[in-house]
Design a protein that fits this description.
The complex is a heterodimer of chains A (257) and B (332). Chain A has 257 residues and is mainly alpha-helical. Chain A contains eleven helices and no strands. The chains are: A mainly alpha (257), B alpha/beta (332).
């Protein structure tokens, strides 16, 4: 019981911090919007034999991008907590380390989920204003309700990576490198921005090896009804990926003294 | 064992040892007991093993050898019990500076399982104690370092700890704030009967606050007693003569009972005021030039100097630097 309270407390702190940093919320929305509107309008190529327009095609991809970037904040916040000392306050409290990891993971995943929802709402809103954009995205309560757990699943997987890496690294500088050499490639290879059924072989291998691909495909099927990979397969792969990453992240966090 | 029944020992430490990298004995077989309601000070230069000892007693670090109990709980076997009954103020701040003072206290109360119904009153109480009540809703980021330290002390008290650990409680504070913090510490002992374990490398702090002081150097306790008796052990006042370097050898022969460090002659005497004339005459007769003569009533610094031959403020290297240095020496 006390551990549940501890998890809630750690989570609560992440929430307070998230809502206090208004600039962070706004700046993290800017990037996805640029992708959706500028990149989306600029390319304008029909996809899947003209079935859907490009803005609709990249919408799920951009949501996943936003979730990924926000989720990686879990790692940044672990390093911050360590440098600013608050980690010590948590470590010396009469609560287990697992509760700290779970609380922090849920905190970051929640913020990622909120970020994803905001973009989803923006897409729905823009679609209402102009039929030129996102015409292929299905807007209804059902889509939204199913999208929530799926987005959470993707978020938790990336959160696991973030916490694991933060437990190995000592500084925030090292974390920047991880962003450029792990997170960005994972995003670009995922088929978030291009269809993956007609790729050169070398790229196909990389794309299919990238777990994010399955997250994007899963969400794309839900939002547009089109995908290159079967929904059940995508869901299975992402579930396994998320469980593995959370276990590794927790293990590494625990191991660090 | 019989003594245990008479006075409950809040902290018992037996042969506690911590070895880093198989070679650096940061804490080297220390023994001490702390009674309920006592303010016990760990005095020593940086890198002497003070923080390592605190980290072990707070269950943040496992000892290499020996054992210890805090509030009657074993630090190795019952870490959770130990954590519930202690409060800690670390050397570096561990506040969340994006949150308000009150939010920091609330989070702490929740982590330590303070009941919701009691929380509000308790927060007011501790804020009042450190005179920060009117700043409860300010973001910690704007606090001065003295205010932060006070807030941390308040936070450490929220869950009614029986023992409070203070690691260098006044490090980096200006003299006025330091006096303030001292007042709170004394108040805690007097009004709340909290047992306090503090580390410091300020002599006057140990002297002013502590009921008993353990002097620690290179991981070993080299003396332990009340400040008064530690000073008394020096045999009264000290006469200090500053002499030129070339006279040092001569002085060694003449003032046989003295201690000479660099070009300072330290003479322990019963009453310095009366005896200084004799000492100066003796120096003059033996052609030892005296640049300056000073009288000093005993302070704890002399105890340390007497025991180790070093001034405590010649700060040694911290443990982290020492580990880094050794790693470099081995070439990786």
């Amino acid at each position: 019981m006390h551990e549940l309270k501890a998890i809630y407390t750690v989570w609560l702190r992440e929430m307070i911090r998230y809502f206090r940093a208004k600039e962070r919320i706004i700046s993290s929305l800017a990037m996805p919007l640029f992708w959706l509107l500028v990149f989306g309008s600029g390319i304008r190529a029909p996809i899947f034999g003209g079935e859907i327009d490009y803005t609709s095609f990249i919408a799920p991809g951009v949501i996943v991008m936003s979730i990924m970037f926000t989720s990686m904040h879990s790692g940044i916040s672990v390093i911050w907590d360590r440098e600013l000392g608050f980690m010590k306050e948590m470590l010396v409290a009469p609560i287990s380390r697992i509760s700290i990891v779970i609380g922090k993971s849920l905190g970051s995943a929640t913020t990622a989920l909120m970020q994803g929802c905001i973009i989803l709402f923006l897409i729905f809103g823009i679609q209402n204003l102009s039929s030129e954009y996102f015409s292929g995205v299905k807007v209804n309560l059902f889509t939204f309700m199913i999208a929530l757990p799926l987005m959470l699943l993707i978020a938790l997987g990336i959160v696991g990576i973030g916490i694991g890496i933060a437990s190995i690294l000592d500084t925030l500088e090292g974390f920047g490198m991880i962003f450029n050499f792990l997170i960005m490639p994972m995003f670009f290879l995922s088929g978030a921005l291009f269809p993956i059924n007609n790729l050169p072989n070398w790229l196909r291998v990389l794309t299919y090896a990238d777990p994010v691909t399955y997250g994007v495909e899963m969400l794309r099927f839900l939002m547009t009804g089109f995908s290159s990979i079967d929904f059940v397969l995508s869901f299975t792969v992402i579930s396994l990926f998320t469980i593995t990453m959370l276990l590794i992240g927790t293990y590494l966090f625990n191991k660090r003294g | 064992m019989e003594e245990d029944l008479v006075v409950f020992k809040m902290i018992q430490v037996q042969n506690l040892t911590k070895v880093f990298n198989n070679e650096i004995r940061a804490v080297d077989g220390i023994n001490f007991n702390i009674k309920k309601g006592e303010i016990f000070g760990f005095l020593g230069p940086n890198g002497a093993g003070k923080t390592t000892t605190i980290n072990m007693l707070c269950t943040l670090m496992k000892p290499t050898g020996g054992k210890a109990t805090v509030c009657g709980y074993d630090i190795i076997k019952q870490p959770k019990k130990v954590r519930e009954c202690i409060g800690i103020v670390f050397q570096d701040t561990t506040l969340d500076d994006q949150l308000t003072a009150k939010e920091n206290l609330e989070l702490h109360g929740r982590l330590y399982g303070v009941q919701k119904s009691k929380m509000k009153r308790r927060i007011e109480e501790v804020l009042e104690l450190v005179e920060l009540k009117d700043r409860a809703d300010s973001i910690v980021k704007v606090f001065s370092s003295g205010m932060k330290r006070r807030l941390e002390m308040a936070r450490g008290l929220i869950h009614y700890p029986k023992v409070l650990f203070l690691d260098e409680p006044t490090l980096g504070l200006d003299p006025q704030t330091r006096k303030h913090v001292w007042d709170y510490i004394v108040k805690l002992k007097k009004e709340h009967e909290i047992t306090i374990f503090l580390t410091t490398h300020y002599m006057e702090e140990a002297d002013e606050l502590c009921d008993r002081v353990a002097i620690i150097d290179h991981g070993k306790i080299i003396a332990m007693d009340t400040p008064k008796r530690l000073k008394g052990g020096l045999g009264g006042d000290t006469i200090i003569l500053d002499i030129p370097d070339e006279d040092v050898e001569k002085a060694k022969k003449i003032f046989k009972k003295s201690k000479i460090f660099d070009s300072q002659v330290l003479l322990s005497v019963k009453n310095a005021g009366r005896e200084i004339k004799k000492v100066l005459e003796k120096a003059k007769k033996n052609k030892i030039e005296v640049i300056e003569a000073n009288i000093r009533k005993p302070i704890l610094n002399d105890v340390f100097l007497n025991l180790t031959g070093r001034e405590i403020r010649e700060e040694g290297v911290g443990l982290k630097e020492e580990l880094k240095r050794r790693r470099r020496m081995r070439g990786h």
